[in-house]
Amino acid sequence: RLLKMEEFFPESFRLDLKDERNAFFELCKEEQIWICKPSCSNQGRGIFLLKNPAAANTLQAKLHSSKGDLPSKRVQSRAPQARIVQRYIHQPLLLEGKKFDVRSYLLIACTAPYVLFFAQGYVRLTCTNYDAMSDDLTVHLTNQYMQKKNSLYSQLKDETVWRMEHFNSYVNEKFTKTNSLPKDWVFTVFTKRMQQIMLQCFLAAKHKLDRKLGYFDLIGCDFLIDENFKVWLLEMNANPALHTDCKVLRDIIPAVVYESL
Fold first, then answer.
1. Which of 19, 77, 132, 257 is most enclosed, with most CB atoms within 10 A?
2. Residues 6+ positions from 86 with CB-CB distance below 8 Å
3. Residue 109: how many CB atoms within 10 A of its CB?
4. What is the overall mean pLDDT for the chain?
5. What are the chain's domains?
6. What is the mean pLDDT of residues 9-27?
């Protein structure tokens, strides 16, 4: 069964498309947090939050003025980087009071014929407790590059990444009874949902892939779970980080690379 977009993907708008841009600025007059992301970037670069209508108005004015500035003939015209705005999930499930997401892997091993593989990844946590209204981006973005900017990172580095087995045990202990979850929810319901979402995204994009033998790609897929245990796809990364900054990553990443090759 194919999922509807709203079943797994937060409401999003492309700011480089006029109709979507106008629809967003019409909608964001309400008090709601949005997250603005550049396309074709990584490590949390260029991401910021829009927390109120005034911030959205400022962005709208900035986009309008950048379009109005006609470049001189001597200066080569360059289109501004495409961005999306995404409705911020402000009630995420927390682990020990901290926001987290899950990085998993989709290996497109072959496109002639199509061959896909799934690999469990790891859980990425923030250094400090979650506060939806915080202006500190390290409270909102879980990736290691961003967490390194937090003053607590050096002492908490190994606590910012959990194995999936640790995550599964934690959910079993803390949430199975109170939220009426099946035992090992992480490795059953959650894993099947990630695979279903990955497959649907692949089916949507497969016609764009080169059907040439020898081509492959490892995609890093980021999922967030909200407090109702609904699974959201945040983004898919064509160039996932493969560094090994902490103990868990030193165990997981080399195996993922080895198995991919």
1. 132
2. 10, 11, 12, 34, 35, 36, 37, 234
3. 14
4. 83
5. 5-87 (3.30.1490), 94-260 (3.30.470)
6. 83
- The values of phi and psi at residue 254, to 5°, are -55, -35
Q: What is the pLDDT of residue 74?
A: 47
Residue with tokens 């091993």: 109
pTM of the entire structure? 0.86
8 A C-beta contact, residue 120 and residue 163: no
Q: 13-37 in b/e burial notation, b at 16+ Cβ within 10 A?
A: bebeeeeebeebbeebeeebbbbbb
Q: Name the residue among 129, 133, 150, 142 with its Cα closest to residue 101.
A: 142
* pLDDT tens sequence across 94-152: 998 998 999 999 999 999 889 999 999 999 988 888 888 777 667 777 776 666 666 66
Distances (CA, A) of 172 to 126, 133, 177, 243: 21, 30, 8, 29
Q: Is the peptide bond before 113 cis (omega within 30 degrees of 0)?
A: yes
Contact 229, 181 (CB under 8 A): yes
CA dist 128 and 126 (Å) reads 6
3 state DSSP class of 84:
strand
Q: How many residues does the chain have?
A: 261
3-state secondary structure of 29: coil
CB 93 within 8 A of CB 229: yes
Q: Could you read off the pLDDT of 246-261 as tens digits, one per residue?
A: 889 999 999 999 999 9
> Is the CB of residue 83 less than 8 Å from the CB of residue 169?
no
214: phi > 0 → left, psi -120 to 50 → alpha, else beta; which? left
